[in-house]
Amino acid sequence: MDIKFEMIFFILTGIAVFVFAVWIITTERRLKRFFLGKKAKDLENTIAVLENNITQLKKARENIEKDIVVINTKMKKSIRGLETVRFNPFPDQGSNQSFAIGMLNEEGDGVVFSSLYSRERMSVFAKPIKNSKSEYELSSEEKEVLKRAQIK
User: Fold this and answer.
1) Which InterPro entries does the UniProt entry name for this protein (predicted)?
2) For the chain, how far is it from start to end, CA to CA, in angstroms?
3) Mean of the pLDDT values across residues 121-144?
């Protein structure tokens, strides 16, 4: 009975050694193919170049991230909501020659321009807007254009 266990042990050990030897041989062949024609200095140089490239890419990425923050800040302050309403302030005269233009950024800051046209004269008004509100009285057309210009 002991002989059978010894036999099985030797057979399994032999199979394990054979599999391990095959694995070592295939790994060695792969490495030889990889390093074929290359010297240690060439590999060191290649690794140094790759490391330098990685460093440059990291710096470029950091610069791009900083630029994105600056661009996002500028975008919030830029005019993004723009609307125009034409109207006739004097129903008995002319047509829709008058207009109101609303320009707002993301934060609700901007300006409303109004032009009132009549036969005798033309008047232009500019009213500053802070947080979607004006310290000056707004006409119904100006309120409408301001509402339509708000970014959703």
Assistant:
1) DUF4446
2) 86
3) 91
